[in-house]
Design a protein that fits this description.
The complex is a heterodimer. Chain A is mainly α. Chain A has a domain at 26-224. Chain A contains 11 helices and 2 strands; from the N terminus they run H-H-H-H-E-E-H-H-H-H-H-H-H. Chain A has helices spanning 9-40, 47-65, 69-90, 100-122, 148-170, 172-182, 184-189, 194-216, 226-241, 246-266, 274-285; strands spanning 138-140, 145-147. In chain A, strand 1 and strand 2 (145-147) form a beta hairpin. In chain A, helix 2 runs parallel beside helix 4 and helix 3 (69-90) packs antiparallel against helix 8 (194-216). By secondary structure, chain B is mainly α. Chain B has a domain at 41-252. Helices cover 73% and strands 2% of the residues of chain B. Chain B has 15 helices and 4 strands. Chain B has helices spanning 19-35, 42-62, 72-89, 94-116, 121-141, 143-146, 169-191, 194-204, 206-211, 216-242, 247-250, 252-265, 272-290, 294-308, 312-325; strands spanning 152-153, 159-160, 164-165, 244-245. Chain B is globular and about 50 Å long. Classes of the chains: A mainly alpha, B mainly alpha. The A-B interface holds A 43, 91, 94-95, 98-102, 104-106, 108-117, 119-120, 232-233, 235-236, 238-239, 269, 272-273, 275-277, 279-280, 283-284, 287 and B 1-3, 68, 115-116, 118-119, 121-123, 125-127, 129-131, 133-134, 137-138, 140-141, 252, 256, 259, 263, 293-303, 305-307, 310.
Chain lengths: 295, 326
């Protein structure tokens, strides 16, 4: 059947897997953006830069402390989250009472600072990060070759997304969070410390970006620009999914990754822009996004 | 942006100056512009003027309608390519190729606006950013027109009206000054027209403008298209000035840069963006040889502006004058 449309199955499934990998990162990043936006009403432009920071922290840990992938998987998100908390506490907090666009501009400036620093010290060529021993090699599934590490990335990202969704939609803490998103003043009057919750939410959101960075390190090279190219696509993903729902952010992340993979097979020259084209179509048909609601 | 601007309630954006005072200041500035090439490098002033026009055009939507566009690089870059290509391969004279650039910028602006105006605030910013990234990838791929990574090189400056050669640096300089002044006067006219008053009312209170019977989306679209067309003129002029149109012009960093120029000079003031553009261009000139990371410095200025200096230089100045008067 595949010979009929002139595409060998290896190429098709290979690209689909690549799409799924990209989708995993889109999902993790847009999840973080959605969580942050829900609570802070800020679009975190620095998300891409913090993803890059996460990857670099992993590389530092290996290079200077000899701590491997598994340590990085825990320590790097914690470090990035801590950076996020400091940023929120010292600077971002002052902007909530202003127009939301200032939050966007502030985080944009932050992204430039981070990117500029790393570009200054490490250039743009990128550092390589070896795949952890456990996931070296791969297996032949008959229709395609699956490197273990890529399988792990997909599984881990789905698990993290599902856990986050569960924590926000089904637990007591999540219900506070959702309530504070709807009406922070009311929730505060019930004795819940909303400012602390906001700080922790930002920390958690950017920790997700840091985690994505660690996961990306063995696949892509660790370089200062890895985040800025990604974040714009993730913005488009977020517009397509609609900011209202965690579920929407995650699902549209995976879907668009897959779609991008498919485009690479059938129309390689359009692969870079397919997400943006879909964004335009969705905006024309459903301005609030696929899963979103006007607010 | 529902920000407290430094404009007076009556809406005269020239600030707290009396009519005569602003005339005098304007006259001094024009004389300074005419004398500048004898003091500074003409190439530098020309570049600053192109970016000043770019920032003023951008401010037309951010400062006077309250729309934050993160996609103006697309208009700037597309127009630079259009002007460069038409001057090089169609043999258009400079004034026509720049007009063509403005037209291309305007068409892009109309399409962007038509798509993006469906959403507001942060979404508007993200959508324009995504659309401009699409234009960037197109520019990367359509190498036949854009020259891809190399850019469109060796753009001829040509002869103004087919008569006056612009290869002479001073002639080119006064041509750029003329383009800037004409466009700036046009922006001034738009801002101080009944149309401009409607734009400001949208910025201050959109629901109220709607309830007064204005078709807000149409006003936004017209303003956005105008801004994009003027940005196109700036991009085209820049392409002739440096004789190059490249991917840098169309990259999203350029959109960020023009936001910074506007913010630094003063959002919603007429001359602020020009001041901001001059400062940023000078700073980049200085940093280029200093070995400091340019991006980081720009980012720091961005953060400082947003945190403590939201009115910008001209905005602060106006506020200072206002305080003294009371």
């Amino acid at each position: 059947m595949f010979e009929l449309i002139g595409i060998p199955p290896q190429a098709l499934f290979g690209q689909l897997l690549l799409g799924l990998i990209n989708g995993s990162f889109y999902a993790l990043l847009s999840l973080g953006l959605a969580v942050i936006f829900g609570m802070l009403n800020v679009i975190n432009f620095a998300h891409g830069a913090l993803y890059m920071l996460g990857a670099f922290v992993a590389w530092f840990l290996l290079q200077y402390l000899g701590l491997g992938y598994w340590w990085a998987l825990v320590l790097s998100p914690v470090a990035v989250g801590a950076v996020g908390i400091v940023i929120e506490k010292t600077m971002l907090q002052r902007l909530y009472k202003l127009d939301h666009l200032y939050g966007l501009l502030f985080t944009f400036g932050l992204a430039l600072i981070l990117e500029g620093i790393f570009k200054h010290f490490y250039g743009v060529s990128g550092q390589s990060y070896t795949t952890p021993d456990l996931f070296k090699g791969g297996t032949n599934l008959g229709f395609m070759f699956l490197p273990y590490y890529r399988g792990w990335v997909v599984v881990l990202s789905i698990a993290v997304c599902a856990a986050t969704w569960y924590a926000i939609e089904k637990t007591r803490l999540g219900s506070y969070l959702r309530a504070a998103t709807e009406n922070p003043r009311l929730v505060q009057s019930f004795g819940i410390n909303v400012p602390v919750m906001i700080t922790l939410t930002y920390g958690f959101g950017v920790a997700l970006a840091g985690l994505a960075g660690v996961m990306a390190a063995p696949i892509y090279s660790v370089n200062p620009l890895m985040g800025s190219n990604l974040i714009i696509v993730v913005f488009a993903v977020v517009v397509i999914g609609g900011m209202g729902s965690i579920f929407g952010a995650v699902v549209s992340g995976y879907l668009l990754g897959l779609l991008e993979g498919l485009t690479k097979v059938f129309m390689p020259e359009a692969a870079n822009i397919v997400v943006f084209v879909i964004m335009v179509v969705v905006l024309l048909l459903r301005p609030a996004g696929l899963f979103g609601r006007e607010r | 942006m529902s920000v407290k601007y430094s404009t007076t309630p009556s809406g005269t954006v020239t600030g707290r100056f009396s009519g005569r005072a602003s005339l005098i200041i304007g006259a001094i500035l024009i004389v300074a512009l005419l004398a500048a090439p004898y003091v500074l490098y003409p190439a530098f002033v020309m570049k600053a003027l192109c970016f000043a026009l770019f920032a003023c055009a951008f401010n037309l939507v951010l400062g006077f309608v309250g729309l934050l566009s993160f996609g103006h690089a697309a208009f700037f870059g597309a127009a630079a390519y259009a002007t460069g290509y038409s001057a090089k391969f169609f043999g258009l004279t400079p004034e026509l190729s720049i007009l063509f650039g403005g037209l291309v910028g305007g068409v892009f602006g109309f399409v962007f606006g038509w798509v993006a105006i469906r959403r507001q605030g942060i979404y508007f910013a993200m959508i324009t950013l995504a659309l401009s990234q699409m234009v960037f990838f197109l520019a990367l791929q359509v190498t036949g027109i854009t020259g891809g990574e190399d850019g469109l090189q060796g753009v001829p400056r040509g002869e103004l009206f087919g008569l006056i050669s612009l290869d002479e640096p001073l002639v080119m300089y006064y041509f750029v000054v003329a383009v800037f002044l004409i466009c700036f006067a046009f922006i001034w006219r738009v801002v101080n027209s009944p149309f401009g008053a409607v734009l400001k009312s949208i910025r201050e209170n959109e629901p109220r403008a709607i309830s007064l019977g204005y078709n807000v989306d149409r006003f936004k679209l017209i303003a956005f298209t105008l801004s994009a067309a003027l940005t196109g003129v700036a991009g085209g002029t820049k392409a002739l000035t440096v004789q190059l149109a490249s991917l840098t012009d169309v990259q999203w960093q350029m959109s960020g840069e023009v936001i910074l120029m506007t913010l630094l000079g003063g959002v919603g003031t007429l001359v602020g963006p020009a001041v901001g553009a001059t400062l940023v261009v000078s700073l980049e000139n200085f940093l280029a040889t200093s070995g400091l990371p340019v991006t980081t410095v720009i980012g720091v200025i961005f953060v400082v502006c947003v945190l403590v200096f939201r009115r910008g230089i001209v905005g602060e100045f106006n506020a200072f004058l206002g305080r003294r008067k009371h």
